[in-house]
Every structure is written in C-alpha cells, then in structure tokens.
Design goal:
The protein has about 450 residues and is an alpha+beta fold. It has helices at about 30-40, 90-105, 145-150, 195, 205-210, 225-235, 250-260, 280-295, 300, 305-320, 325-350, 350-365, 370-375, 380-385, 390-395, 400-410, 430-450, and strands at about 10-25, 50-55, 55-60, 70-75, 80-85, 115-125, 135-140, 155-160, 175, 185-190, 215-225, 245, 270-275, 275-280, 325. Among the domains are: about 30-110 and about 350-450, no CATH class; about 255-320, no CATH class.
C-alpha cells in the first residue's frame, strides 16, 4: 500500500509565480512608421544576442539587470511580440513602468478582444526542499491528461530519478520533460542555486531568496499554446495532468532500505566526501544500480543474476512505500490559480486603463490613491524622455531603413494615435484594487526578504 504520509515539503513564501510572459498583437499597418520611430529611440537598445534583419527587429528596454522587456516587430507579418519576467519588475514604480510601456505599445495595435494574445506563460513553483530526492513521472498513456497529450514523442511512463556520475554522487541540477524550443510546452525541474553558479543570480539575491534554507528548487511549467494557456488558467485543464511527483527512489529512501541489511553501508571506512558532504559507497552503488535498471542502462545487464534480482526487489519495495506529493503541489496551484490568471490576463488589455487612472490620481491630491499613484508613475518621465532621443545604432541598420521607407508609403496623413487606445466608459476605477494588491504584494515581498 502506498504511504500517504506527507514528508516535509517547504514552499517559498511566494510559492507560485509567473516567471515569464509573452504577448503578441496585430499592429495597425497605418501606425507602423510611428511604431518604428518609437522602437528606434534611445529607450531601446539592441541586445548583444539580438539583431535587426529583413525578418524583423528585436530590441530591448532594460531598466536594470533582470528588469527588461524584449520587443520583436515582424517585418514580414503584421505582428509584434513582447516578452518579460514580471518577477523582475517587482517594485511599485517598476511595475508601473512596465504597464506604461505595454500601454504605449498597445496604441499601435488593431483594436481586438483581447488586444494582446498570451503566447507564452511560465508558471513557477519554488520550494526550500531538495527536489533531487524526488522523482517525476508522466504517464503518457493517459491521453485524456494534459501532459500525456502534449508530450507525444514518448511511450509508456517517463521517469526522472536522481543520477550519479563518475564521482558516484551528484545532485540533479536540471531536468526536462518535453522539447526545449520557443514553441513547445515543457516542464523544468532545477536547482536555483545553479543559477547563481551560472551568473544568472548574484549570491546576494540568492541568499535573500533562500531565507536561510539549505535548498532552493523550482518546478516550472512553460506553456505556449494560447488556447491551452487559457484552459489551464481557468481550471478547465489540470496543470499537473499525468504528472506525478513522488519520493521513492531518492538517495535517502535507498539509504533507509539498504543500510539495515548491508554491514558495509554502516561502516565508516566506506564513507567518502563530496563538496563537504559524507556519502556511503555501498549506498551510492545501489543508487547507481537502480538508475541503470530504471533507464535500461547496458551495464545493468552485465551485473550478476543475484544482484539484478536484489535490485529489482528493492525497486518494488521502494515503489510500495513511496510518498506521492503531487497533490501538495496541486493544492498550491489551486489556491493561487485565480491570482495568477488575473495577473496574466491583465497584461492582455488592462494596462491602458491602469495607466489612465494612475495619471489622473497622481494629479489629484484629493484622490484616495494619490500617494500610491505618484510612486507608481515615478519612472514614466525617464522612459518618455528617452523616446524623444534617436538611437543611431538602430536607425543605421539597412534592414530597418528598408522597412521604414516601405512603411512610409502606406502612412495615411492626418491620423493621430489615441493616447491609450481605450474605450470610453470602461470601469477604470476598478483597476485601483489591482494597484492596492500590487502594493501589498511588494510590501509582503520586502518583509519576507528582509
């Protein structure tokens, strides 16, 4: 019988967040010249790994490291895409500036509902537990479940278990379900500490996020299909469909099963150290055997028959005593799904309404949200000023000049852009509640990290 006792699984204070958003909209071709003028201002820079060619221009607005907005304007279609990580725009004035930029760029789009389409949303679960001790499986035969439907290249049950290299002990740092591309849904499980090693996080930022805990891991769902994103955000589909997260073949479970019956597993002379931690050689050997058996490694077939039988029996024993933690993650998702959905869909159309109301409140000292509005709009002038300055590095690119000249021929004289491209009579006042929530979220975050 499966053990349903919950082992300790510690979630971070902000357990579920959106780690990346990609919006796409259809531009109004009569506004292309004005849009290209905006994207060729000093507000935007070409990133080292980006380029401008006959297919389009990819530019970046970077407020600071991490808080950046990538913009891609197609030269062959009428689409524009924005990509950003909202977690990095976490201060009030920064989040306000993000809405301000989205609202600015929305003016160049055709008025549709929604104006922006969600082309990518990454949902992240952060935990202070060692997830290399956990196992992840997708039953790809369960075609009615979400991940069994989208991961069509695999058959049967796909499992990831803790790996071992030639040191006989290395913790899993990153694992994937699905294809790594810009269009395919996938699941990532990785050690956030590795991001600090790779330079994506400073040691100081990592320490503030870990809050004194030894481990900091993330399970991340990268979603690309707009229809699927909407179904998952609204709860019509299960984000964890066909995925299971269990503790059964982890190092600690193997150690608990092997140590009572193997004298060498209890003897200090068979211990060794890696990165300051002590491990037992016999336990590591069995961990390697199980890995070989689960993944069909050729070396397993060369083991003695008695040892192979022992390993297979051990796997059955571990399987019978496994702890399923999938529902623990699922409950976190259900308790945060509405908030995540509101945030993701909010970027699709609400930015202009938010900005319009904030600007009004900032000018009206009697407004109840005046102080908040003044803070949130604090960076607007910096961005607006940079829009007035030409960026020669972009203007000089031949592909830009070619498409700009072509677009000029299609400009209709006399047309002016609506400042925010919103319809009159919308309930702009209601957007204050979102800013209040943002205010509280930022305060909570600061309290957690101080």
């Amino acid at each position: 019988m499966e053990n349903t006792t919950q082992l300790e699984l510690v979630f971070a204070p902000q357990a579920v967040t959106i780690d990346k958003v990609k919006l796409q909209g259809k531009i109004d071709e009569s506004s292309r010249v004005a849009l290209m003028n905006e994207l060729s201002s000093m507000a935007y820079q070409r990133a080292p790994d980006k380029k401008i060619n006959d297919n389009g221009m990819n530019v970046e607005y970077r407020l600071r490291k991490g808080a950046s907005l990538d913009v891609f304007l197609s030269f062959t279609t009428n689409t524009m895409a924005l990509e950003f990580n909202p977690n990095h725009w976490n201060k009030q004035d920064e989040r306000g500036l993000l809405y301000h930029i989205i609202a600015h760029l929305q003016r160049y789009l055709e008025v549709t509902a929604p104006v922006w389409v969600l082309k990518r949303v990454d949902v992240a679960f952060d935990v202070y537990s060692n997830l290399s001790e956990y196992n992840y499986a997708i039953n790809t035969r369960a075609k009615h479940e979400y991940w069994a439907r989208v991961l069509t290249d695999n058959e049967g049950v796909v499992k990831l278990i803790t790996n071992a290299n030639n040191t006989n002990r290395v913790e899993l740092q990153t694992a994937y379900f699905g294809q790594r591309s810009n269009k395919s849904d996938l699941i990532r499980i990785y050690d956030k500490r590795a991001k600090a090693i790779d330079g994506e996080l400073t040691k100081e930022d990592l320490a503030s996020l870990m809050k004194g805990h030894e481990h900091y891991w993330r399970v991340e769902f990268e979603l690309h299909n707009s229809e699927n994103i909407n179904q998952l955000l609204t709860g019509q589909d299960d984000l964890f469909g066909a995925l299971t997260i269990t503790r059964d073949y982890g190092r600690s479970q193997i150690e608990e099963a092997v140590t009572p019956t193997k004298a060498k597993a209890r003897a200090d002379k068979y211990n060794y150290e890696v990165a300051g931690k002590t491990y037992n050689r016999v336990v590591s050997d069995y961990e390697s055997y199980i890995f070989g058996y689960m993944h069909g490694a050729p070396f397993f077939d060369r083991l003695p028959v008695s040892l192979k039988k022992e390993v297979k029996d051990l796997v059955k024993q571990l399987e019978a005593n496994k702890t399923d933690l999938t529902n623990t993650f699922r409950k976190q998702w259900e308790s945060n799904r509405s908030k995540i959905a509101a945030q993701a869909t909010g970027y699709q159309s609400r930015a202009p309404r938010i900005i319009e109301q904030l600007l009004k409140a900032a000018k009206d000292k009697r407004a109840k949200n005046h102080d908040l509005a003044v803070t949130v709009t604090g960076l607007f002038n910096k961005y607006d000023y940079a829009l007035k300055l030409e960026n020669a590095n972009i203007r000089a690119v031949a592909a830009f000049v070619k498409r700009y000249n072509k677009a000029e021929l299609n400009v209709e004289s006399g047309d002016e852009l609506n400042p925010y491209n919103t319809q009159s009579g919308e309930d702009i006042e209601a957007m204050f509640s979102e800013q209040d929530a943002l205010h509280q979220q930022y305060n909570d975050q600061n309290n957690q990290h101080n």
